[in-house]
Amino acid sequence: MASAAGLPRPSLVRLVAVSVLFLMVADCAQKKTSTSAPVPAADAVASWRDEARLPADVCEIDTDHVVKVSRRFSSRAEALAIATAEARYPGRDEVVASFEPAHVLDEIGLRKDRDYDWFEDVEAQYAADRRSRARRWYDSGRLWWCSDFDYVLIAYAVTREAVDYYSDLVRDLRTTRRHPFADPETKQASSLKYSASARHMAEFTMGGLEFTDVIVVEMELEFSASFASLAAVGFHRKRTVIVSSAGLEVLAVFGDGPPEYWVS
């Protein structure tokens, strides 16, 4: 059936999808260029980024899968502060105390009452890959996650490894569609959006604490993935890290903890 303008409905849908994609790409370009603060020279920003070992910003978009990562700073110390904040992990005991035991023990393969051989081949390999990564983080003490759902780790804290994990997950879904719960009859979709910004503050108050001459790093991570009509998960995390004016010492962290997340 044609629309009132004589345009077939499938074509209209495609036009809408292309329009949405165009707006998302334009949004990426705008966020790379717009700022209310003076813009440092590009070579200075590149030098600070390299010294702090911060990855380049990312804006990867197609109609179903999105990875957007941006880090904003206007000085060498602010770049270092973002790297310092992203490398800060919560205490191991703190995270372990928040574990959802059944989920986490499944994720790292430590449950004694479960026979992992029952998985179908595809699920078994996928589960083994995921458990191997989660187990390494668990054993090393670099715990940024506290639970999982459908083989997706749930973030307790926003860290560099968390950002990389969700970015890789979206890319994997985009290129291989390799999730054991994927329904070929249902469109898959996933998204990772992460931003970090640093600003020097002469005075700053948060959580009843007062700070002077510090760099405040604001971090925000939003993730969602839909594998099938009854297999989806998502959450939104914010983290504020107070760093010394040199950008090298963490003074306080706000926002870590068991998150609220939605599933279906």
Descriptive report:
With 264 residues, this protein is α+β, with helices and mostly antiparallel strands. It has one domain (18-28, 38-257). Helices cover 36% and strands 31% of the residues. The protein has helices spanning 9-33, 42-52, 76-86, 92-96, 101-108, 121-140, 160-175, and strands at 58-61, 65-72, 145-149, 152-155, 189-206, 209-228, 231-244, 250-254, 261-263. The strands form 2 sheets. Strands 1, 2, 5, 6, 7, 8 and 9 form a 7-stranded mixed sheet that branches. Strands 3-4 form a two-stranded antiparallel ribbon. Helix 2 packs parallel to helix 3. The longest helix is centred in the N-terminal third of the chain and has 25 residues, at 9-33.
Layout of helices and strands, plus pairs?
Blueprint (H helix, E strand, L loop, with lengths): L8 H25 L8 H11 L5 E4 L3 E8 L3 H11 L5 H5 L4 H8 L12 H20 L4 E5 L2 E4 L4 H16 L13 E18 L2 E20 L2 E14 L5 E5 L6 E3 L1
Parallel strand pairs: 2-5
Antiparallel strand pairs: 1-2, 3-4, 5-6, 6-7, 7-8, 7-9
Helix pairs in contact: 2-3
